[in-house]
Specification:
Elements: E1 3-10, H1 13-20, H2 22-39, E2 44-50, E3 53-59, H3 63-78, E4 82-84, E5 87-89, E6 93-99, H4 108-124, E7 130-132, H5 133-140
Parallel strand pairs: 6-7
Antiparallel strand pairs: 1-3, 1-6, 2-3, 4-5
Helix pairs in contact: 1-2, 2-3
Length: about 140
């Protein structure tokens, strides 16, 4: 059975904290978490991974299904700016997707590391996009 994870990073989060303060930064994290939760389907696990990163795990989903969901989440949050007393703050996400290998011995750490490589590829590629680990592997080998 396939198992896929999506790592989600709020683009330019530090800029929001520096411009509006940590209170608004905290509001932004709650806003993103709530928006992501609305896209979560039955059996998926969603959690804060650290800082401005979140993780979504999907048992029974392939990398291509994860990519489709990641793009759905990205488009949803992009269409939902955060409205604060300080003004309207546009939000975008960079997302990395990785599917567990079918070989024995792969660890959750390795899977999250693959998703992290994909996430940073999305950030290097201009942000507000989804990258899938398999695609990266095929391109770089």
């Amino acid at each position: 059975m396939p198992f896929t994870v999506i790592l989600i990073d709020v683009d330019y989060f530090k800029r929001v904290n520096d411009t509006y303060g940590h209170n608004v930064g905290d509001q932004l994290l709650v806003h993103v978490a709530k928006a992501c939760q609305t896209q979560r389907k039955e059996g998926m696990l969603f959690a804060r991974y650290g800082g401005e990163e979140f993780v979504l795990s999907m048992k029974g989903c392939t990398a291509s299904e994860g990519e489709a969901l990641a793009n759905q989440v990205r488009k949803h949050i992009e269409s939902q700016p955060l409205i604060t007393d300080e003004g309207v703050i546009s939000v975008t996400l960079s997302l990395g997707v990785a599917e567990a290998a079918r070989e024995a011995g792969e660890t959750l750490y390795q899977l999250l590391n693959d998703a992290d490589h994909s996430l940073y590829s999305a950030k290097r590629g201009g942000r507000n996009q989804v990258r899938v680990y398999k695609e990266l592997y095929e391109v770089t080998v």
